Amino acid sequence: MLDTVAVENYRSLRRLVVPLRGCNVVTGPNGTGKSSLYRALRLLADSARNGSVNALAREGGLSSTMWAGQGEKGPVSLKLGFAGEDFGYAVDFGLPIDGNTAFNLDPEIKSEAVWAGPALRPSALLAQRGGPTVLLRDAEGDWRPAATTLRPFDSMLSELADPQAAPELLALRERVRSWRFYDHVRTDSAAPARQPQIGTRTMVLSHDGADLAAALQTVAEVGDSRALTEAVENAFPGSRVEIRSSDGRFEVTLRQPGMLRALTAAELSDGTLRYLLWAAALLTPRPAELTVLNEPEASLHPDLLPALAALIARSSERSQVVVVTHAAALVEALRGEQRDVNTIELTKEMGQTAIVGQGLLDEPSWHWPARG
């Protein structure tokens, strides 16, 4: 489980060190940095797949994503990191060195570090990178250079995660790759979730929800079928989900009291379909180490928010959850369902995102690795 996420110089996140618990809610007015924090988490996940440089380039490069406030000195630096009880990781992006290339928007990875435990200390370092060179600490505590030098757009998490040479990097990489993000899953009339799809056992709902029917059937057969029944009952009293199968194609239907037939996915309202998507994602038989939901309340009727909060609370018993939301009603419903909800309320002061009520002494301990 993550205890801390840290971001420096990303959009309005001049310096933000966020404490995390099992169930976390990020909230605050529009423009306070909620989406930036969500994107920062995605960038960290991308680093384990060698995708963070591409993701930053798609946002326009460092010039478009860097903190734009006054008082900046020294080299351009965008930093991202996280830590838990067992491992920590940090990466530092900078401007590319001038050269004969058309990829001028690609930032470069200037440094990376992996350490044991919740805080970066020299004695806890397991791997450190400066430019193309990576040093690995062996079982005797001695440093040795990695056999491979890295290109400026490659992360050591993706390139050096070897079970023999760097087992800690491999373990950390696989954990980060297990993180799941759900962001505005489609529910429009042409949404994949509304169409019959070839059905196979689906332990994890896809990012676009195309395999919703198969995911719900998998929950019913090999997951917590009782929780699925309760989730549907809480949201739509007297209703039940039925998965229609024809020639290997699965389709979601919802049988409701007073209706002569079950409604197909094509007939469901956006809010009803979205709720079923959240049920499939959160009741997965294969929970992730971290699940991040961005504005899950979108399209939902306010009456559905207590049922959604119950779903999220149940999921947080098996997976660390971060919910980014505008809805105060969802925050209150979560507090009613889960006593240990960590509410992270963001505000903006002089263009800089801050956590409401967090003073310097309240901020988790965090240190960035130096550039090599």
Automatic annotation (TrEMBL):
Residues 23-331 form the ATPase AAA-type core domain. PANTHER family: DNA REPLICATION AND REPAIR PROTEIN RECF, SLR1056 PROTEIN. The lineage of its organism: Bacteria, Bacillati, Actinomycetota, Actinomycetes, Mycobacteriales. It comes from Mycolicibacterium sphagni. This is ATP-binding protein. GO terms for molecular function: ATP binding; ATP hydrolysis activity. Keywords: ATP-binding, DNA damage, Nucleotide-binding, SOS response. One of its GO terms (biological process) is DNA synthesis involved in DNA repair. Pfam families: AAA_21. SUPFAM superfamilies: P-loop containing nucleoside triphosphate hydrolases.
